[in-house]
Each structure stands twice: as C-alpha cells, then as structure tokens.
Design a protein that fits this description.
The protein has 157 residues and is of the alpha+beta class. It has helices spanning 3-30, 78-81; strands at 44-50, 57-63, 68-74, 94-102, 105-112, 115-124, 127-132, 140-146. The radius of gyration is 21 Å and the shape is globular.
C-alpha cells in the first residue's frame, strides 16, 4: 500500500472513532438509558386505568429528560388533559423528580398537597411496573402512550 493509502486508511479509522464517540456522547447527554429491558420515554405519558378506589379514572405519569415527573389522576382522556403536562403550568398535580435512572430501574418521587410519594419502578419495553413505598395493595403497571395516539390503556392492577 502506498503512503497515500495509509493516510486515507488512518483518516477513515479516525473518522469512525470520532463518529462512534459522538453517538455515545449524544445518548449520554440525552438522558436516555438504553438497555435490554427498555428505556424511559419522554414523548408521551405512561398510563393505566384504575377501576378501584372512590372514583374510577386513569393514572398518568409524564417524565421529562431534565428529570421532572408529573403525576395526574383524571377521568379525562389524554387528549383532554395533555395541556396539564406543561411543566410551567402543572400546579395542583403530583410533581417531582427522578432520583435514579440506571439500566431498567427508575426511582422517583412526587409531591402533592404537601405529601411526599416515593416510587421505585422497573421498565420493560412500553411498560413500567411501579411500586409506591406506602401502597399496601401492590404494584401498578402503566403503559407508554405517545401524545396523539389512542391505544387501549391497561388496568392498573
């Protein structure tokens, strides 16, 4: 191989390393955790329908890349309540932060009406199994729903 060929090969290898490093860095700063079990999605909400309790309705969780979490329980459809998930306007709803996101595990808290709720959860594709530290009745499984979609929302239990 000529000297020019060696330079071209070296430049090609350098470009490949820079490209792969850039992609890895973008995943790191985007806050997306990639792993076998799934990843936390930010372009919609996680939801489940709760038949029990005093008022049947849908439980919604919205996560943001900066770690903000908004939790809303409502009888309204996602289309009706989508404006409630504006971070600046989310007053009177459970609002908190992600405290840990590692692999397919996420921990977060919300605070509503002066009460603190702490959660641990496991991501599995479009589902998250959530456990609230004070719940006595077990886990809640929520399904990811993109804004604008209308899939069937599963029961919470």
């Amino acid at each position: 191989m000529t000297e020019r060929g060696h330079r071209y090969e070296g430049l090609l290898m350098f470009s490949t390393v820079i490209g792969l490093t850039t992609i890895a860095f973008l995943f790191f700063i985007s806050g997306v955790s990639v792993h076998a079990g799934g990843y936390l999605q930010y372009d919609g909400v996680y939801a489940c329908y709760d038949e029990g309790g005093d008022l049947p309705g849908t439980q919604y969780y919205r996560f943001y890349p900066d770690g903000t979490v908004i939790e809303v329980a409502s009888t309204g459809s996602l289309a009706q309540i989508q404006p409630w998930f504006n971070k600046e306007g989310a007053k009177g709803f459970g609002r908190g932060k992600i405290t840990q996101l590692k692999g397919n595990k996420v921990s977060f808290y919300t605070r509503e009406f002066g009460k603190l709720y702490q959660y641990s959860a496991e991501i599995d594709g479009d589902l998250i199994r959530i456990k609230e530290s004070r719940w006595l009745w077990g886990n809640e499984t929520v399904r990811f729903v993109r804004f604008g979609e209308s899939p069937k929302i599963p029961n919470c239990k």
